[in-house]
Amino acid sequence: MKPAAILTLVLLWLIATVGMLLGWIAFVYAINVYTGVSITAEAALNLILTTFLAFVGLPLVHRAVHRWSWHVRRKQDSGAWRVGAPMPRFGSEPTLPPPRVKKTPGQIMLYVALYAIGIASLLAAYAPLSHQQALNEFLGRFSAGRASFSSLANLVLVFLPMALSFAVLLPFIDADQKRMKAGGLDDAEILRLKDRQEWLTSFATAFVMVGFLAFVAGNMILDHLG
Q: Mapping DSSP to helix (H, G, I), strand (E, B) and coil, where does residue 81 land?
Protein backbone atom coordinates (compact mmCIF):
# COMPACT_ATOMS: atom_id res chain seq x y z
CA MET A 1 0.00 0.00 0.00
CA LYS A 2 1.31 3.42 -0.98
CA PRO A 3 2.25 5.94 1.77
CA ALA A 4 -0.43 8.35 0.55
CA ALA A 5 -3.09 5.66 0.88
CA ILE A 6 -1.87 4.75 4.36
CA LEU A 7 -1.93 8.41 5.41
CA THR A 8 -5.45 8.78 4.04
CA LEU A 9 -6.64 5.75 6.01
CA VAL A 10 -5.03 7.07 9.20
CA LEU A 11 -6.67 10.47 8.74
CA LEU A 12 -10.05 8.89 8.08
CA TRP A 13 -9.65 6.73 11.18
CA LEU A 14 -8.77 9.77 13.31
CA ILE A 15 -11.72 11.74 11.95
CA ALA A 16 -14.08 8.82 12.59
CA THR A 17 -12.71 8.37 16.13
CA VAL A 18 -13.07 12.06 16.99
CA GLY A 19 -16.54 12.13 15.46
CA MET A 20 -17.63 9.11 17.48
CA LEU A 21 -16.26 10.58 20.71
CA LEU A 22 -18.06 13.89 20.11
CA GLY A 23 -21.22 12.03 19.17
CA TRP A 24 -20.95 9.95 22.33
CA ILE A 25 -20.68 13.05 24.53
CA ALA A 26 -23.51 14.80 22.70
CA PHE A 27 -25.72 11.73 22.89
CA VAL A 28 -25.26 11.32 26.65
CA TYR A 29 -25.87 15.04 27.23
CA ALA A 30 -28.99 15.18 25.05
CA ILE A 31 -30.57 12.07 26.58
CA ASN A 32 -29.97 13.14 30.17
CA VAL A 33 -30.92 16.81 29.68
CA TYR A 34 -33.74 16.78 27.16
CA THR A 35 -35.52 13.52 27.95
CA GLY A 36 -36.85 11.88 31.07
CA VAL A 37 -34.44 8.98 30.59
CA SER A 38 -31.20 8.67 32.52
CA ILE A 39 -28.32 6.90 30.80
CA THR A 40 -24.73 6.40 31.93
CA ALA A 41 -21.78 7.19 29.70
CA GLU A 42 -20.72 3.55 29.48
CA ALA A 43 -24.25 2.39 28.60
CA ALA A 44 -24.46 5.05 25.90
CA LEU A 45 -21.09 4.05 24.44
CA ASN A 46 -22.10 0.40 24.35
CA LEU A 47 -25.35 1.34 22.61
CA ILE A 48 -23.52 3.47 20.03
CA LEU A 49 -20.89 0.82 19.28
CA THR A 50 -23.42 -2.01 19.03
CA THR A 51 -25.65 0.05 16.74
CA PHE A 52 -22.65 0.92 14.57
CA LEU A 53 -21.59 -2.72 14.37
CA ALA A 54 -25.13 -3.89 13.56
CA PHE A 55 -25.92 -1.34 10.84
CA VAL A 56 -22.44 -0.71 9.39
CA GLY A 57 -20.17 -3.51 10.57
CA LEU A 58 -22.47 -6.38 9.56
CA PRO A 59 -22.83 -5.32 5.89
CA LEU A 60 -19.11 -4.55 5.59
CA VAL A 61 -17.96 -7.82 7.16
CA HIS A 62 -20.56 -9.75 5.15
CA ARG A 63 -19.33 -8.19 1.93
CA ALA A 64 -15.72 -9.08 2.75
CA VAL A 65 -16.55 -12.67 3.71
CA HIS A 66 -18.77 -13.09 0.64
CA ARG A 67 -15.94 -11.91 -1.59
CA TRP A 68 -13.46 -14.26 0.12
CA SER A 69 -15.89 -17.19 -0.11
CA TRP A 70 -16.10 -16.71 -3.86
CA HIS A 71 -12.30 -16.54 -4.01
CA VAL A 72 -12.06 -19.94 -2.30
CA ARG A 73 -14.79 -21.40 -4.53
CA ARG A 74 -12.99 -20.21 -7.67
CA LYS A 75 -9.73 -21.76 -6.47
CA GLN A 76 -11.59 -24.99 -5.76
CA ASP A 77 -13.36 -25.03 -9.14
CA SER A 78 -10.09 -24.36 -10.97
CA GLY A 79 -8.25 -27.10 -9.09
CA ALA A 80 -5.87 -24.64 -7.41
CA TRP A 81 -7.21 -25.69 -4.00
CA ARG A 82 -8.59 -29.05 -2.97
CA VAL A 83 -10.91 -29.82 -0.09
CA GLY A 84 -8.79 -30.96 2.85
CA ALA A 85 -5.75 -28.94 1.81
CA PRO A 86 -4.64 -26.01 4.02
CA MET A 87 -6.91 -23.09 3.28
CA PRO A 88 -5.27 -19.69 2.68
CA ARG A 89 -5.67 -17.26 5.55
CA PHE A 90 -8.57 -14.86 5.24
CA GLY A 91 -7.47 -11.75 3.34
CA SER A 92 -4.03 -13.17 2.54
CA GLU A 93 -4.56 -13.14 -1.23
CA PRO A 94 -5.95 -10.62 -3.71
CA THR A 95 -9.53 -11.41 -4.68
CA LEU A 96 -11.99 -10.61 -7.42
CA PRO A 97 -15.50 -9.38 -6.62
CA PRO A 98 -18.34 -11.91 -6.63
CA PRO A 99 -20.04 -12.41 -10.00
CA ARG A 100 -23.01 -10.21 -10.81
CA VAL A 101 -26.17 -12.29 -10.81
CA LYS A 102 -29.82 -11.44 -11.22
CA LYS A 103 -31.68 -12.10 -7.99
CA THR A 104 -35.28 -13.28 -7.89
CA PRO A 105 -37.89 -11.33 -5.86
CA GLY A 106 -38.07 -14.21 -3.36
CA GLN A 107 -34.31 -14.16 -2.98
CA ILE A 108 -34.32 -10.42 -2.32
CA MET A 109 -37.08 -10.82 0.28
CA LEU A 110 -35.06 -13.57 1.98
CA TYR A 111 -31.97 -11.37 2.12
CA VAL A 112 -33.92 -8.42 3.53
CA ALA A 113 -35.56 -10.64 6.14
CA LEU A 114 -32.21 -12.11 7.22
CA TYR A 115 -30.68 -8.66 7.59
CA ALA A 116 -33.67 -7.43 9.60
CA ILE A 117 -33.49 -10.47 11.90
CA GLY A 118 -29.71 -10.25 12.16
CA ILE A 119 -29.62 -6.55 13.05
CA ALA A 120 -32.52 -6.89 15.51
CA SER A 121 -30.83 -9.88 17.16
CA LEU A 122 -27.52 -8.05 17.58
CA LEU A 123 -29.22 -5.01 19.08
CA ALA A 124 -31.40 -7.08 21.39
CA ALA A 125 -28.50 -9.21 22.60
CA TYR A 126 -25.71 -6.65 22.98
CA ALA A 127 -27.04 -3.07 22.94
CA PRO A 128 -28.28 -3.02 26.58
CA LEU A 129 -25.27 -2.88 28.87
CA SER A 130 -27.21 -4.95 31.40
CA HIS A 131 -27.21 -7.83 28.89
CA GLN A 132 -23.44 -7.54 28.58
CA GLN A 133 -23.13 -7.60 32.37
CA ALA A 134 -25.38 -10.67 32.64
CA LEU A 135 -23.41 -12.46 29.94
CA ASN A 136 -20.10 -11.70 31.64
CA GLU A 137 -21.49 -12.90 34.97
CA PHE A 138 -22.71 -16.12 33.35
CA LEU A 139 -19.34 -16.79 31.73
CA GLY A 140 -17.50 -15.92 34.93
CA ARG A 141 -19.71 -18.16 37.06
CA PHE A 142 -18.96 -21.24 34.96
CA SER A 143 -15.28 -20.49 34.32
CA ALA A 144 -12.34 -21.54 36.47
CA GLY A 145 -9.97 -18.92 35.10
CA ARG A 146 -9.07 -16.72 32.15
CA ALA A 147 -8.39 -19.63 29.80
CA SER A 148 -11.67 -21.38 30.57
CA PHE A 149 -13.50 -18.03 30.33
CA SER A 150 -12.19 -17.62 26.78
CA SER A 151 -13.08 -21.20 25.88
CA LEU A 152 -16.61 -20.85 27.24
CA ALA A 153 -17.00 -17.49 25.49
CA ASN A 154 -16.00 -19.10 22.18
CA LEU A 155 -18.50 -21.89 22.75
CA VAL A 156 -21.39 -19.59 23.72
CA LEU A 157 -20.66 -16.67 21.38
CA VAL A 158 -19.11 -18.34 18.34
CA PHE A 159 -19.82 -22.05 17.98
CA LEU A 160 -23.38 -22.04 19.32
CA PRO A 161 -24.57 -19.05 17.21
CA MET A 162 -22.78 -20.50 14.16
CA ALA A 163 -24.51 -23.85 14.63
CA LEU A 164 -27.91 -22.20 15.06
CA SER A 165 -27.36 -19.93 12.05
CA PHE A 166 -26.42 -22.80 9.77
CA ALA A 167 -29.30 -24.89 11.10
CA VAL A 168 -31.67 -22.13 9.97
CA LEU A 169 -29.96 -21.62 6.59
CA LEU A 170 -29.20 -25.27 5.80
CA PRO A 171 -32.62 -26.01 4.21
CA PHE A 172 -32.06 -23.21 1.67
CA ILE A 173 -28.49 -24.33 0.92
CA ASP A 174 -29.51 -27.98 0.68
CA ALA A 175 -32.41 -27.17 -1.67
CA ASP A 176 -30.06 -25.24 -3.99
CA GLN A 177 -27.56 -28.10 -3.95
CA LYS A 178 -30.25 -30.63 -4.88
CA ARG A 179 -31.46 -28.43 -7.76
CA MET A 180 -27.94 -28.17 -9.17
CA LYS A 181 -27.35 -31.92 -8.85
CA ALA A 182 -30.65 -32.67 -10.56
CA GLY A 183 -29.42 -30.88 -13.69
CA GLY A 184 -31.44 -29.15 -16.38
CA LEU A 185 -30.41 -25.65 -15.31
CA ASP A 186 -28.72 -23.10 -17.52
CA ASP A 187 -25.41 -21.49 -16.59
CA ALA A 188 -27.04 -18.29 -15.32
CA GLU A 189 -29.32 -20.19 -12.94
CA ILE A 190 -26.46 -22.34 -11.65
CA LEU A 191 -24.41 -19.23 -11.01
CA ARG A 192 -27.33 -17.62 -9.16
CA LEU A 193 -27.74 -20.67 -6.92
CA LYS A 194 -24.02 -20.82 -6.22
CA ASP A 195 -24.00 -17.16 -5.31
CA ARG A 196 -26.98 -17.64 -3.00
CA GLN A 197 -25.12 -20.42 -1.21
CA GLU A 198 -22.07 -18.22 -0.77
CA TRP A 199 -24.22 -15.27 0.29
CA LEU A 200 -26.02 -17.29 2.97
CA THR A 201 -22.94 -18.97 4.43
CA SER A 202 -20.99 -15.71 4.43
CA PHE A 203 -23.91 -13.93 6.13
CA ALA A 204 -23.96 -16.51 8.93
CA THR A 205 -20.20 -16.13 9.36
CA ALA A 206 -20.38 -12.33 9.36
CA PHE A 207 -23.27 -12.36 11.84
CA VAL A 208 -21.27 -14.45 14.31
CA MET A 209 -18.13 -12.34 13.82
CA VAL A 210 -19.97 -9.07 14.43
CA GLY A 211 -21.74 -10.51 17.46
CA PHE A 212 -18.39 -11.49 18.96
CA LEU A 213 -17.00 -8.01 18.24
CA ALA A 214 -20.01 -6.48 20.02
CA PHE A 215 -19.34 -8.72 23.02
CA VAL A 216 -15.64 -7.74 23.07
CA ALA A 217 -16.57 -4.04 22.88
CA GLY A 218 -19.03 -4.40 25.75
CA ASN A 219 -16.55 -6.41 27.79
CA MET A 220 -13.92 -3.69 27.39
CA ILE A 221 -16.43 -1.02 28.42
CA LEU A 222 -17.30 -2.98 31.56
CA ASP A 223 -13.64 -3.58 32.39
CA HIS A 224 -12.38 -0.03 31.83
CA LEU A 225 -15.41 2.24 32.28
CA GLY A 226 -17.86 0.28 34.38
A: coil
